[in-house]
Structures are given as structure tokens and as C-alpha cells.
Amino acid sequence: MNTNRNKNYIVNYIFIFGILILFLNDQIFKFEFSNYFTGKLSDVCGIIIFPFFLTYIFPKLKQNSVFAAAIIFSFWKSQYSQSLINFYNEISPIQTSRIIDYSDLFVLLLLPIPYYLIKNVHKIDFLTIKKLNPKFIFVISLFIFIAEAPPPSHYFTMNNGNLQCYKCNMKVNHSKDYVLNKLKQNGIEFDTVRLIHYRSVIDSTSGGKKYIKNELIIDNDTLRNISFTIFPLKGNRTQIYFNGADVSQDLRRDDFKLQRKMRKYYRKIVFDEIKRSF
């Protein structure tokens, strides 16, 4: 890397704290505490630290990096970035997505903060972590920025039950119609079928839909408002997501150990029940 780069831009406590919060919020908090605050926290952190990152990569930008950050952020939040996202998801093992929400642009009002700090970088010398290798922080930060948004599956597996089972899925070697017919024959007939909404639009191309069953009794255990998302795959195969349900146990969102235990348990009994249908 060019030795003219000022490592203080990315090895200071402001940047390190911001990138850490960005990582924790995107990979943990958004899933465990899905609310308005966690939805906006990443945008707030990102718009403050991203200009530091750009200035480190392109030293000639200096404080003008805030304008580049504003353009990139606005493009990302717009409908015009969708084809680029689709292309990226086709070639990358780390998928990404975003919801088009122009209210997120309010964070651009925070750009004077990085503008001032970058212009007066000498004033944050006391916040520099001397022993940190900037190359290491650069690589880690690059991966965190790339994985900043959850994959599309995050949006079509969300549910309001007290048990949420993100990434609980299975594939079967049968067509979607065959799967639905077999489930119906074995007493699993869905009460509600909904279109999938993600990327702020209705998904009309994948053939997937969300299926809700009001009540299902498995081994004397009653589950209510069970949510599935079912997608047809190539080669006459089908992917089934178990999104979650309302269960009888009192599951507090902050009891992570019990949540994990219950997810594992209900994922097993639900998929075992589905497998018995074939």
C-alpha cells in the first residue's frame, strides 16, 4: 500500500468503535432486536466512518471524501443500484441486499462530523491506536462493509412469532406443487398464502411465496401462526424455510440461550413432520 496513506484515519478509536458497532448491529442486533433503532444504527455508523475509509484508500480526496460517501450512499439506497446488487449476488459467496427507504438519507446530515475530523485529523492523534496494523484493519473493514446488509433471505424469513427461526431451511427433491399437495394430503394445509415483499418491491420472478398455518399439533405440542417460505428451485427441487411460529413457552427475546435451544428443537420437529409427508 502507498506509504503516503495516513493510517490514523482507520486506526483511531472513532473508526474502530464505529466499525465494531456496524458489525455487531448487522450480524446480531438486527436479528435479535429488530426495531427502528437497529434499522437506522448501521446507517448512522456507516456514514460517519465510511469517509475515513475512503480517505485512507484515496489520500487525495481528503475531506472531499464526504461528498463521495454521500453519492455512494444515495445511489445504494436508490432503485438504480438494484441491477448492480443482482449482479454482485450472482458472482459473490457473500450476498447482500437493502431496502429502498429514502428516510435513511437523513444520516447525510451527519457528514459535517467526518468532514471536520478528516480536515483536522491532527486533532485526533491522541485517539490513534499506535500498535494496530492499518492493513489488518483495512481488510477486516472491507469485509464488514461488504457484508453490511443482510442477504435477501433475511427479509422473506422475517415473522412476528415469539419463536423466530432465521436460516432454518431444507431442500427436497420434488417440485413445489408436489410438495404442497403432499403436505395437504398429510393434514398440513395452509390457511394464508402471501406474496413475498423484499427489496421494497413484490417478488414476482422467483415463484416463492409465504405460507401461514394457523395451528399445527405435533407430538401433543401446539404451534400457532406457523410461517414458511417455499421456493421452487432448478432441477425440480424445492427449498422450504421454516420462519417461526407462536409457541406455548414464554420466550423472552433477551433470553438468547433459551431461544437457541427452542429454535433447534422446533426446527427439528417441524422438518421431521414435513419429511414424513413424502
Distance between the termini: 57 Å
How many distinct folded domains?
2
Note the total helix count: 9
Task: Please state the oligomeric state of the protein chains shown.
Answer: single chain
Strand count, sense and barrel status of the largest sheet are: 6 strands, antiparallel
What's the number of extended β-strand segments? 8
**Which geometry do the CA atoms define?**
elongated
- Order of SSEs: HHHHHHHEEHEEEEEEH
Helix-residue proportion: 40-55%
Q: Rg, please?
A: 23 Å
- Structural class, from helix and strand content? alpha+beta
Enumerate the spans where pLDDT stays under 50 for 5 or more consecutive residues.
none
Instruction: Give the overall pLDDT as a whole number.
Output: 82
Percent of residues in beta strands?
15-25%
Topology, please?
Elements: H1 13-32, H2 36-57, H3 65-76, H4 82-91, H5 112-119, H6 134-146, H7 153-156, E1 163-164, E2 169-172, H8 176-185, E3 192-195, E4 197-198, E5 201-202, E6 209-218, E7 221-233, E8 237-246, H9 256-275
Antiparallel strand pairs: 1-8, 2-8, 3-6, 4-5, 6-7, 7-8
Helix pairs in contact: 1-2, 1-6, 2-3, 2-5
